[in-house]
Amino acid sequence: MSLPRTLLAGALIFGLIACSSEKETQPGLGEIALAMAQERLKRKDVETAGAAKAAPQVTREQMQALGRPVVFVSVPRFGTGVAAVELAKNGPYRTFMGADQATVTLRDGVITATRGLQVDLIAQEISIPPTSLFRGDGPKTFTKTQRHLTGESTLVTYEYSCAIAALPDAETLSVFGRTHSVRKFAELCRRDGRAFQNDYWVGRSDGVVWKSNQSVSKEVGHVTFQRVVQ
Predict the structure, then answer these.
(1) How many angstroms separate the CA atoms of 105 and 107, rounded?
(2) Sign of the torsion angle spanned by Cα atoms 87, 134, 72, 191
(3) How far apart are CA 182 and CA 200, in angstroms?
(4) Is there a contact between 64 and 229 (Cβ–Cβ < 8 Å)?
(5) SS3 of 8, please?
């Protein structure tokens, strides 16, 4: 039986605090985790991804027929979902475009930019390589920088203190009828005035991020990615 989201996040946070006392190689982890716990206890102060409001109107077979890598991208806050086809590949960066002409760029499953959303993520950078986020069992701390273009065409930059850790139990994830054995990673990020939780479901044998909920901006909230066709 799965834990409710609030208890799940709380368990992760206090697990991070416990680990921080044993891991001198991760300075500041306890302070970050404690601050996140205090935010979490206020409830609703930490933004999380909502559930999809409608079933996808496309099948795996239809997406496979496109003949290219496909991710299904949904924005729970707006109740939208679209199959996005790989448009370009540049080293580890992969850009996908949907029928609505909006694009999203991912690096090793972690979002780096969007175009065509209400408030776009012009760029996102993290202080450690994205692939290292999902290695090992211990928690990791890092900084995340997000740049947004406001409605007044002003570029604003926000820096977050983040922590990520794997949940202990393996899970079976279904993505459009195909199952994957995965580990779930929970990431918590905060700055003054805002905190959010991201989730990643990573293949145990292949390291692929098969599904994720990632916050792109306060206005848009979380975007859910499901890897359908590799």
Answers:
(1) 7
(2) negative
(3) 9
(4) yes
(5) helix
Q: What is the pLDDT along the chain (230 residues), one digit of tens a residue?
A: 444 444 445 545 544 444 443 343 444 555 555 555 555 545 567 888 887 777 788 999 999 999 999 999 999 999 999 999 999 999 999 999 999 999 999 999 999 999 998 889 999 999 999 989 999 877 899 999 999 987 778 899 999 999 999 988 899 999 999 999 999 999 999 999 899 999 999 999 999 999 999 999 999 999 999 999 99
- Neighbouring C-alpha atoms within 13 Å toward the C-beta of 38: 10
Domain boundaries, the chain: 5-229
At residue 5, φ and ψ (nearest 5 deg) are -55, -40
Which residues 6+ apart lie within 8 Å of 214 measured at CB? 110, 111, 198, 222, 223, 225
Q: Which residues contact 15 (CB under 8 A, 6 or more apart)?
A: 139, 165
Contacts of 144 (CB under 8 A, 6+ apart): 124, 125, 126, 127, 159, 160, 162, 189
pTM: predicted TM-score of the whole model, two decimal places? 0.84
DSSP structure string for 39-87: HHHTSSSEE-PPPPSS--S--HHHHHTT-S-EEEEEETTTTEEEEEEEE
Range 5-229 has CATH code 2.40.360.10: yes
Structure tokens, 200: 């990643």
